[in-house]
Amino acid sequence: MRPKVVLFGDSITEESFGDGGWGASLADLLRRKADMVLRGYSGYNTRWALKVMERVFPAAGDGGAYPSAVTVFFGANDACLPARCSGFQHVPLLEYKQNLRLIVSFLKNRWPRTVIILITPPPIDEEARLRYPYIENTIGLPERTNEAAGTYAKACVAVANECQIPAIDLWSKMQQIPNWQTECLWDGLHLSRVGNKVVFEEVTNTLKGEGIGAEDLVVDLPLIEDVDPKKPLTAFDDQDQNAVVTRSGPKTSPILGLKETKPTPAAHSCRLSPMAPKTEDKNRAASDCTVKSKETSDVTLANSFAVQDSYCAV
């Protein structure tokens, strides 16, 4: 079965399949090796994301196959200033952190071996936000600031560290590029071609570090060079629904399509990945990421994510 990578986020994810987009570039890099599944929702914040998790990520019995990795890319809308024109999208910082924990917990409870990658919001060019408002701005002040985005970016990285999962600090990375305001962003928020390239490279490197790089995956059916011109059908004789053996590469893992490795003992941890970890933290207990649900009026929703084995400590 061909593995898949799910891209979950706001408009920066929704637009990633456009020309030159980071999602489209990933799909091209991993073509015939992994499927990119786009789950981007323009304008969404982490509060709204929690409301739709069950619909976005159906259980296996409902058609939800086990993904190799999921990118979680929220924060740009959460960081909107509450008293500005996009204040209805704002999520307070502490709630944002707890929402990220609950999102990670939901995904890990559903798919314990899936690699979860948190991506911070990008930096903000405030002058450009005034030139390109997408909601009527009657007070003449930007609805976002780079300072606020940076605060939420640090919070995102902190949650990833708590959960011992990878994080991409896009806010910091982009500001290392000269003239990032115009090089990486086209409207002070959304990504230009250069900005998309930055995200693509960061996600690619992170996937590679987790053992899900292009070199770790194999094609899911015989290549043309694996077909004997005199007996072409023999290339397909040994195929089954989940495994591939070709002269060009090794047998694939039946679930993830990765190069076959020796199995490792199962352990519930934030950092479980499809490939065996290179090192083991002997001091980490399996329950070191237990979610403590925040006090909220929506207790039922929060409890639905913090079931059985949970993964992120408050």
TrEMBL record:
SUPFAM superfamilies linked to this entry: SGNH hydrolase
GO terms classed as biological process: lipid catabolic process
CDD domains named among the record's database cross-references: Isoamyl_acetate_hydrolase_like (cd01838)
InterPro entries the UniProt entry points to: GDSL (IPR001087), Iah1-like (IPR045136), SGNH_hydro_sf (IPR036514)
Region (Disordered): 244-287
Similarity-based family: Belongs to the 'GDSL' lipolytic enzyme family.
Protein name: SGNH hydrolase-type esterase domain-containing protein
Organism, scientific name: Brassica campestris (Field mustard)
Lineage, opening ranks: Eukaryota, Viridiplantae, Streptophyta, Embryophyta, Tracheophyta
